[in-house]
From TrEMBL:
Organism this protein belongs to: Scleroderma citrinum Foug A
Signal peptide: none
EC number(s) recorded for this UniProt protein: 4.6.1.16
Functional description taken from the UniProt entry: Constitutes one of the two catalytic subunit of the tRNA-splicing endonuclease complex, a complex responsible for identification and cleavage of the splice sites in pre-tRNA. It cleaves pre-tRNA at the 5'- and 3'-splice sites to release the intron. The products are an intron and two tRNA half-molecules bearing 2',3'-cyclic phosphate and 5'-OH termini. There are no conserved sequences at the splice sites, but the intron is invariably located at the same site in the gene, placing the splice sites an invariant distance from the constant structural features of the tRNA body.
Protein name: tRNA-splicing endonuclease subunit Sen34
Entry-linked InterPro entries: tRNA_endonuc-like_dom_sf (IPR011856), tRNA_intron_Endo_cat-like_sf (IPR036167), tRNA_intron_Endonuc_cat-like (IPR006677), TSEN34 (IPR016690), TSEN34_N (IPR059049)
Amino acid sequence: MIDSERPIPLLVSNKKAYVWDVNDIANLRSRHHICGMLTGTLPHLSQQNVFLGVPLLLMPEEVVLLVEKGFACLVDDRNAHRDPSPALLSKWDSARLKAIKHQLALAEEEQDAKEQHTSPAMSEEAIRKRRERERKKSGATSTTDGLFSASSEQPDHNTPSSSQGDQGTAPGRSGLTGTYTVHVSASSSALEWYNQSAHSYTTLASAREAGIWDYPATADERARCSVFRDLWEKGYSMGGGIKFGGDYLVYPGDPLRYHSHFVASVIASPTTPLQPMEIVAHGRLGTGTKKSHLLCEWDEEDKNVTYYSIEWAGFG
């Protein structure tokens, strides 16, 4: 379930912000048209480079926008982690083993119930297996070292045996045969060694004082954040535009549904020089990729963005 009221935690590591929760990623995309970039590999697809998984890496402009709008908070992920004490680790391990033993006991009961309801042709085989389990249990309880072990009786050399033993038999449950999947849920004690709330920052100023975030720090970075915010407020979705010679790709909606209409380049101020060759290059590249190139000029004094669209026209 997506919680739209809670500020989305952005885990900051080395001045980069990540999102690990898939519900938060869905919330960012569906409610705030913030896409970011998935950077993790997917299970069983470790060699692929087309479809990626969590975590979601956000552009600095996206982080600034989300924090300023109150949609997210910054978390010092490094200091939020604390080394657990030996007592806490022992407590967690005991709870984990208890959960495993409980699931194995349920599996054994289910297996016994199935054997009791087998057809008459299989009843003798079920009885033989049950007696074999009881024999192994009695042998395992006779050991004195307190560890799980097999029967202490000598093997019968007249019967075939496996050198590797029964790989499907769980420790301490000699009666189980085959392979079983054991589900171990995350322990609530994990919260005791990861304190996120104590290292969260809801403003850029507080995060800058803590030393985990310093963007924007220059006039160019402030211009980029302002242009990104203006395009976002107009309803566009943005992605990285370095492949197309700009700062952003500008989409009219979700990038999974639409192609980008513009490639945007940020001009830090009205007095920033612009070479004619840059205009020619942007126009030719935009035409070749079926996009218009936007020159986004930020005026720090007027707090206003002026847009100029470049495209080839009037030939032939």
